[in-house]
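Sequence, please.
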């Protein structure tokens, strides 16, 4: 088996793992986002009123796309790595002819794809509540490649770090969720007074939501080129960390 064949085989195995369970993979985000759009977009949105030139339900749509995308990319990568360690079948991957970068890229690519699929599903759900257009398709595609790749890479590191299933819950609930809800999904950043506005710029979620909102609506809080550069740099850095951890056998050689 060549290295590239091994890479494609691992990507295919990881994709089939979640595609074969559509009720577990696709139904929860679909139902959750119907509730989000119904409650925050329609019921509360009518009381909140428009944000700038956009209805509230349309304004929060890009943020909900980001939320679903990163959650699924992170959870898929972290669970897959940890489950493979827990049940010791990840050893088959480690003893294959694949290089360490190929192993990492396979886990990241399959998990990022899941995030993108969920993002598309959320966009379709949102289209039932409000007309959805795409003002900058190339930027939207670029952000929807980089964002799930970044969180899939973080998921690989999290899966290697986790010592039991509680670790996965801790990372999601106490690190990712706070960043998400203070990342400008439900409000425009310029609505914040100082010093909260400046402090929010340190939150990576702000760059993600702003970038995807620019792709959909031509509205941004952070310059889209700056946001894309920051997120791309962060993705490369975390990928390099993942590869280094694999080479060291961190979490793999216990």
């Amino acid at each position: 088996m060549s290295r590239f064949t091994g890479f494609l085989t691992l990507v295919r195995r990881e994709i089939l793992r979640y595609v074969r369970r559509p009720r577990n993979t696709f139904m929860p985000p679909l139902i959750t986002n119907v509730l989000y759009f119904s409650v925050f977009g329609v019921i509360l949105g009518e009381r909140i009123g428009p944000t700038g030139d956009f209805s509230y339900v349309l304004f929060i749509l890009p943020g909900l796309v980001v939320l679903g995308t990163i959650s699924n990319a992170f959870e898929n990568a972290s669970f897959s790595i940890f489950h493979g360690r827990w049940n010791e079948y990840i050893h088959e991957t480690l003893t294959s002819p694949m290089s360490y970068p190929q192993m990492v890229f396979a886990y990241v690519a399959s998990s990022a794809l899941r995030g993108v699929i969920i993002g598309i599903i959320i966009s379709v759900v949102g289209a039932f509540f409000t007309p959805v257009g795409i003002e900058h398709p190339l930027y939207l595609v670029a952000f929807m490649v980089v964002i799930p790749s970044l969180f899939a890479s973080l998921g690989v590191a999290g899966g290697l770090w986790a010592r039991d299933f509680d670790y996965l819950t801790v990372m999601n609930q106490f690190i990712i969720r706070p960043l998400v809800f203070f990342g400008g999904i439900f409000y425009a950043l310029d609505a914040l007074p100082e010093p909260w506005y400046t402090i929010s710029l340190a939150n990576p979620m702000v760059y993600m939501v702003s970038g995807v909102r620019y792709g959909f609506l031509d509205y941004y809080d952070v310059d889209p080129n700056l946001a894309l550069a920051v997120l791309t740099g962060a993705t490369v850095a975390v990928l390099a960390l993942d590869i280094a951890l694999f080479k060291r056998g961190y979490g793999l050689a216990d």
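The longest helix spans residues 56-86.
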